[in-house]
């Protein structure tokens, strides 16, 4: 089965959506994963494609000319007091550009509230024929993929799924054997990277997560065992590394990300 790859925005966080799409097209990616919902993290460029009509049209033209596709809409977080309707504009724009999925994560410690709002998010996304993939994040309210599975079983939404991130899976200490028990239909795409061993300090973990991940095969995560416990899906390369960007620039880094991912996955990954 042919493997497809997307360039995640965190890999080249200081680029605009148009710049990221151009880099993805130049490097030969199948998809691009644009962060359309501003999060305010360091070096992130705030762009609203609903307001920037010129950039929107340029991205649309680039997709038509190159065959590059938009994979997902990032990132619809569930926070305390969240107004989910504020995500609708991004859903509408993303869908018009061909997006299929919405990436979400839960950042509240109020478990009942988080589940309720995630279920509402799935209903909202369904209006746009979008699926919603829930990601566990080691510094968020929902930290493990075992928790994600419990939420999916609780809400029973047919457009809800699980977004596997190899970095976050490793940090959560979830088991590959547990991953093998999850239904295949939960998996629609995954985020991949390698990384050093998880440091005990939270600050150090965030530092690696935001700017110190490794090319596949160059870190200490057993990426193959994770990806072989799930079906083959499009792989979004989320691999921020400030040192490599300084060495290669964003396009060079993105190209190296794709080259190393293809080599690794073609050698070691067959899927479930």
From TrEMBL:
MF terms (GO), sorted A to Z: isomerase activity
Presence of keyword Cell wall biogenesis/degradation: no
Residues in Xylose isomerase-like TIM barrel domain copies: 23-241
Record keywords: Isomerase
InterPro entries on file: IolE/XylAMocC-like (IPR050312), Xyl_isomerase-like_sf (IPR036237), Xyl_isomerase-like_TIM-brl (IPR013022)
One Pfam family cited in the UniProt record for this chain: AP_endonuc_2
SUPFAM superfamilies: Xylose isomerase-like
The name this protein goes by in its record: Sugar phosphate isomerase/epimerase
Gene source species: Fusobacterium canifelinum
């Amino acid at each position: 089965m042919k493997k497809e790859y997307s360039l995640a925005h965190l890999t080249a966080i200081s680029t605009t959506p148009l710049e990221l799409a151009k880099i993805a097209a130049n490097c030969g990616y199948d998809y691009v994963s644009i962060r359309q919902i501003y999060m305010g993290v360091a070096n992130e460029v705030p762009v609203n494609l609903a307001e920037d009509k010129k950039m929107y049209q340029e991205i649309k033209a680039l997709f038509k000319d190159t065959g590059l596709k938009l994979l997902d809409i990032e990132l619809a977080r569930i926070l305390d007091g969240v107004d989910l309707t504020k995500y609708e504009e991004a859903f509408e724009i993303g869908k018009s550009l061909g997006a299929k999925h919405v990436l979400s994560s839960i950042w509240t410690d109020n478990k009942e509230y988080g589940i309720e709002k995630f279920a509402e998010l799935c209903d909202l996304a369904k209006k746009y024929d979008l699926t919603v993939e829930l990601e566990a994040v080691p510094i968020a309210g929902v930290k493990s993929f075992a928790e994600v599975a419990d939420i999916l079983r609780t809400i029973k939404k047919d457009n809800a799924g699980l977004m596997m991130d190899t970095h976050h899976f490793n940090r959560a200490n979830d088991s590959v054997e547990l991953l093998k028990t999850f239904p295949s239909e939960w998996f629609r795409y995954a985020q991949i990277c390698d990384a050093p061993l998880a440091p005990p300090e939270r600050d150090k973990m965030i530092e690696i997560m935001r700017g110190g991940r490794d090319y596949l095969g160059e870190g200490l995560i057993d990426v193959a065992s994770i990806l072989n416990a799930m079906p083959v899906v499009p792989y979004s390369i989320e691999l921020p590394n400030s040192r490599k960007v300084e060495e290669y620039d964003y396009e060079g880094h993105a190209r190296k990300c794709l080259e190393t991912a293809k080599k690794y996955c073609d050698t070691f990954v067959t899927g479930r």
